[in-house]
Amino acid sequence: MQKAAADLTRLFGPERVLWEREHLATYGFDGTAALSGEPGCVVLPKTTEEVVQTVRYAAANKIPVVTRGSGTGLSGGSVPVPDCIVLCLVQMDRVLELDRKNLTVRVEPGVVTQKVADLADAAGLLYPPDPGSMRISTIGGNVAENSGGLRGLKYGVTRDYVMGLEVVLASGEAVLFGNKCVKDVEGYSMKDIFIGSEGTLGIITQILLQLVPKPAAKKTLLATFEQMDAAAETVSAIIAAKIIPCTLEFLDRITIKCVEDYAHVGLPLDAEAILLMETDGHPAVIEEEAQQMAVIARNHGARAVQVARTAEEAARLATARRMAFSALARFSPTTILEDATVPRSELANMIRFIQQTAAKYGLSVGTFGHMGDGNLHPTFLTDEKNSDEMARVEKAMHEIFDHAVKLGGTITGEHGVGLAKKAFLPKAIGDASLDVMRRLKRTLDPDNILNPGKIFD
Fold it and tell me: What residue ranges define each of the domains in the chain, with the CATH number in brackets?
C-alpha cells in the first residue's frame, strides 16, 4: 500500500492522498457501533475523471476500493477492509444544475443532503427524502443506501427521486443511466441496480434528482397514549380513513424520557407512547385531515392531542422525534441503532416483542421510528467493552430480526445491509434471491474490488 499511496500521490498530489496512520483513523469507521477497520490509504477526488483514474489503478493492481461520504451509515457499509483504498467523495460537492422547467437538480455525490433540501426550498420546491442524518449525510451515500426518512410514508424513499446516475464501474468505465424524461422504459432500468447497492457494483459520481412542488401548508399534531397498542391502532385507523400524512412517527417510554431530558420540549414522561402526526398540502385539506386525525387518535385511546398553532411550535414538536437518536446516545457508551420493518398491521405485535426480548436478555432498548410505514428503530443502550452484554445484544438482535421476517417484514427499512446485517440476509430473502445478487456482483465486479465483504461474502 505504500507503493499505491506513492503512485496515487503522483497522480493527485499529497493534499488529496492520505496514508499516515494518524490521518487514516478518521476513515476507519462509520456511524455503526463496534465496527472498524484500517485502510491502506485514502483518496479525495474532485472529478469523475479522478475517480476513473483511481479505480483503473485499483483494478490493475487488484486493490479493494471502499467508497464513503460523510460516514454516517448505520450498517458498516463504508467500514474499510484491510489494505484498501478508501475513496472519499466529500470534495465532489458541486451543484451542477437546478432546472426549474423540468423540476430537477443535478449534483455531485458529496453534496450534503440538507443543501439539496435548502436549494429546492429556495426555489419553491421540495426534495422529500429526509433521513435523520440529513444535516451531515451526503446525497451519494443516500443513493448508495437508498435512505428513507420521516416523510417516507407519503413521499417514499431516495429511489423514488433518482432520475439519472453517472456511475464508474469496476473496470474504470464511466457510464450514464437515466435522464430528465418522466417516462423512460428503454431497456433495463439500470440506474435502479445501483441505488441501494452500497458501493458494491459501482461508484456514483453524479446524480439527477426529481423535485416536487412545495406544499402550501402543513399542520403538526402530537398525541399521547398510555398503551402502545392504542398508538399502533391509531396509525392503522388513520390509513384506513384514506389519510396519508407526510409524517407519522412514534417514541416509546424510554425514548420519551431520554428526549425530554436532552431537549426539554415538554413531553409527558408518564406516557407509554407519543405519536407525531403531520399533514401537508392545500390549507383547506390539511385542516380537515388534522381534525380527522385528532378525532381518530382520541377515539383510539389518546389521552391528549396537542395541535401546533405556530410554525415555531410545530418545529418544537418535530424536534422531539428528530432528536431521538442523539438523546438516546447520551445514556450509554455504545448506542446500536437498528431498523426492522413490518406490515403496519403487525406494529403492536413487533413492538411488544422488542420489549419482551429486551427484558429477556436484561437489556435497555428504546424504540422509535416511522410507525406510518412500519419501520421501527429498536436502539440498544449498551457498552461494547462489556463482552457479556454485547453477546446478549447479538442474541436479542437475531430474535428481533427473525420475528420481523416471520411477520412478513424485513431486516432493514432504510439503513442497508453492509457488514452489520449480512448474517441475517440469507434467511430474510432466501438462497435463490441471494444467488441472483451474487451473479450480478460477479458480472459487474469480477475481481471483487468494490466494497468487498459487504451485503454478502
Answer: 2-88 (3.30.43.10), 95-213 (3.30.465.10), 217-325 (3.30.70.2190), 332-429 (3.30.70.2740)
